[in-house]
UniProtKB/TrEMBL annotation:
Name of this chain's protein: 1-deoxy-D-xylulose 5-phosphate reductoisomerase
Record-annotated 1-deoxy-D-xylulose 5-phosphate reductoisomerase C-terminal domain positions: 183-266
Positions contributing to 1-deoxy-D-xylulose 5-phosphate binding: 164, 188-189, 213, 236, 249, 254-255, 258
Region feature Disordered, mapped onto this chain: 1-32
Length: 434
């Protein structure tokens, strides 16, 4: 057990560098013998997953993918990935997609090659998370990623964590099973903090500065946000991501989730974590130290760099991401956050400080509201308003002894309540407009 879940000064036994001085054991032996590191990719067909596959295919001597998991929504892509990577096992969460996956695998492999083992069902990704490998990349979207996160940690795998929701909804559960340095963050902001934190000791950290692009609606007032459409919300100015995180970036709920994630990963109090709006997404986050020095990590926005660091830690993968051309003029801007237009960040801080089941309620209510917004059933500002109402109704949870059933029950309640309130909000909006 550790207070700081991701600490660049602490190396989990599986993460020793491959130099002869390394003294790791078990699966770490692979990196010391120069053999590729075995990786399991969960959520391989998504934005994070496909970029992770790119990183692996570019570095065949460094990484080898043993297994892939997805929901089952993109079986042709999954089959093609399995074939290109030569994986042992492929898993889908939705059993009804198995016939289509079998057909896609047959088309990708032909008749001469043996097909990989197939797993199906809601626990398939969790099973793969505990399968023999060095590092598990959790690139599943949503709090459904919690069980695989816990399984990977309990099995002693290094966890390259993109699925922030699992940490946020199950913070104390993750803390109880994670070894020191066992998690390497993949979220670009937390990867930046991880790298900047190498610049001093924990006692020398004064503040974490988490940067936010501000999303597509930066600079708008709350009134100007009332009528924005899903299409507008999906047009993120700097990052190309999955639908949920893209809408969360527009409401800045994603930034709120990231503040909770930073608090849990680095054990820094909420009052010492500040969000700074930075439209260019060039500086991925910063650490202010007690002597007044601020260290920033920067680079063109491209998730392949933090993914490669997550897979390869503690080594850097050469040419993992693009670099700036410093011979060309460019300028970067920084603004304070408008908390009136984007109340999600202070709301998330309150929820994070409450702890217990409150973060699970916040996240689950938000996932429901995002779905309702994308389906045209809830106005944009209704997302955070509804989430705030559900959180308020949930009250102050018991912060001790959190269990997985507690989290699941809180999520079920929050989803149902958010759906009810979203319907009311939509009806009220329609009546007001009539
Ligand atoms: N995208 C980014 O740039 C970015 C940056 C920072 C952090 N993150 C975080 O990374 C995570 C993934 O985001 P994303 O943008 O890559 O999402 P995404 O594009 O929507 O992809 C989600 C992936 O998860 C799979 N999946 C869903 N439910 C599953 C289940 N029950 N079992 C196994 N796989 C399942 C999906 O499979 P199907 O394709 O079959 O549906 C897909 O492969 C999120 O937590 C997000 O907050 C993303």
């Amino acid at each position: 057990m550790t207070d700081s879940l991701a600490d660049p000064h602490l190396r989990y036994p599986g993460t020793e560098p491959s130099e002869p001085s390394g003294n790791g054991s078990g699966t770490a032996a692979a990196s010391q013998t120069g053999a590729p590191r075995d990786i399991v990719i969960l959520g391989s067909t998504g934005s994070i997953g496909t970029q992770a596959v790119d990183v692996v295919l570019k570095n065949p001597g460094r990484f080898r993918v043993t297994a892939l998991a997805a929901s089952g929504g993109r079986v042709e892509l999954l089959a093609e990935q399995a074939h290109r990577l030569g994986v042992r096992t492929v898993a889908v969460a939705r059993e009804e997609t198995v016939p289509a996956l079998r057909a896609a695998l047959g088309a990708a492999y032909g008749t001469a090659e043996p097909l990989p083992e197939l797993l199906a069902g809601p626990d398939a990704a969790t099973e793969l998370a505990a399968s023999p490998c060095h590092t598990v990349l959790n690139g599943i979207t949503g709090s459904i990623g919690l069980a695989p996160t816990l399984a990977a940690l309990e099995a002693g795998r290094v966890l390259a964590l993109a699925n922030k929701e699992s940490l946020i909804v199950g913070g104390p559960l993750v803390k109880a099973v994670a070894g020191p340095g066992q998690i390497v963050p993949v979220d670009s902001e937390h990867s930046a903090l991880f790298q900047a934190l190498m610049g001093g000791t924990r006692a020398e950290v004064r503040k974490l500065l988490v940067t936010a692009s501000g999303g597509p609606f930066r600079g708008r007032s709350r009134a100007e946000l009332a009528d924005v459409t899903p299409q507008e919300a999906m047009a993120h100015p700097t990052w190309d991501m999955g639908p949920v995180i893209t809408v969360n970036s527009a409401t800045l709920v994603n930034k709120g989730l990231e503040v909770i994630e930073a608090h849990l990963l680095y054990d820094i109090p909420f009052e010492d974590i500040q969000v700074v709006v930075h439209p260019q997404s060039a500086v991925h986050s910063m650490v202010e130290f007690t002597d007044g020095s601020t260290l920033a990590q920067c680079g063109p926005p491209d998730m392949r760099l933090p993914i490669a660091l997550g897979l390869g830690w503690p080594e850097r993968v050469p040419d993992a991401g693009p670099v700036f051309s410093w011979t060309e003029a460019m300028s970067w801007d920084f603004f304070p956050l408008d908390e009136e237009a984007f109340p999600s960040v202070p709301l998330a801080c309150r929820v994070g400080a409450l702890g217990g089941t409150a973060p699970a309620v916040f996240n689950a209510a938000n996932e429901e509201c995002v779905e309702a917004f994308l389906a045209g059933r809830l106005p944009f500002t209704g997302i955070v308003d509804t989430v705030a109402a559900v959180v308020e109704e949930h009250g102050t949870p018991d912060g001790t002894g959190l269990t997985l059933p507690d989290v699941l029950a809180a999520e079920t309640w929050a989803r149902a309540r958010a759906r009810e309130l979203a319907v009311r909000s939509a009806t009220a909006t329609a009546e007001a407009r009539a």
